[in-house]
Amino acid sequence: MEFPLLSKLQHWISDLPAKLFWIKRAPEPGTVILNQKRIYTVPSKSGWMLVLVLLILFVTSTNYNLNLGFILTFTIAGIAFVSVFQGFANLASLELEPVSAENTFAGDSSTVRLRIRNPGKRARYAIWIGWRHAPEQKQAYDIPPESDIIVELELLTTARGRCQIPIVTLNTWFPLGLLRAWSYWYPGMQAIVYPAPEAVTPQIPLSGDGENESTTVASGGDFSGIRPYRPGDSLKQLAWKQIARLNPDSSNALLTKEYVQHTGGETVLDLQSLLHALATEQALSRVAAWILQLEKHNMAYGLHTGDLHIPASAGEEHARRCLEILALYGERS
């Protein structure tokens, strides 16, 4: 049986500590220990129902002078009272420590790793851990005595830049489900969100000392990007995966893979030149896509953003550095 009013009241009560104490609180770096000031408790739906049943039993036993009714009422009330301390102790003294936040592209999920340590000599059971803004994503964990666990949570990103890890909620209804004990944790950790790569990119430009050349070829060169289909293009070069994602009613329903052969020099990705023709976010997305293409083919490339010039190189570390520069482009130091 559902009680909408009771459910709303419980949600309002459970969210009250966050509204009073947590919304304006800054992220907490380092290890956090859950003490009695950080743990909140409130009866669950089952707990409120039990309170109502006990009240009815008590009134009935009083009116009819039922000794067995009094015994039953106070026995159940005593068990429920003990469960309050058990639920509180299930969270008390846990040590929370941020581990890592995976850098990712805008629109993708970042894997956030958190360490939860149980320093006590008794196990902790059925602790639900998840985001405060997305409670449906919570997962249950048991923590053995004097040990720790690594919790992995997926955080969906929407925009490039620094992404502050949001508030984490720890809930438990242990042992009888009559009481909800919970705590909030605001980890002092960030993830870097790269610009989302452009889905269809033009040929990668080649820049150098003026003697370098690049030639677009049908095949046999390095993959350079995707462009709209032109009459005369080979059917073997059609980009079927990208075509499948397009709207069939689109005027550019066919796409062709483009390859380029370089005859010398190095590739320098010049963000500033793109900004003259494209919006900032579109230019960043295009350069990010070019970086992934060049990295896939293990080609050396540099990056020029106006104030910063990265010499040509290759490898995962170089790609990560360039993508981070794009992610933080325009950020005031």
TrEMBL record:
<keyword id="KW-0812">Transmembrane</keyword>
<keyword id="KW-0472">Membrane</keyword>
<feature type="transmembrane region" description="Helical">
    <location>
        <begin position="70"/>
        <end position="89"/>
    </location>
</feature>
<protein>
    <submittedName>
        <fullName>DUF58 domain-containing protein</fullName>
    </submittedName>
</protein>
<keyword id="KW-1133">Transmembrane helix</keyword>
<feature type="transmembrane region" description="Helical">
    <location>
        <begin position="47"/>
        <end position="64"/>
    </location>
</feature>
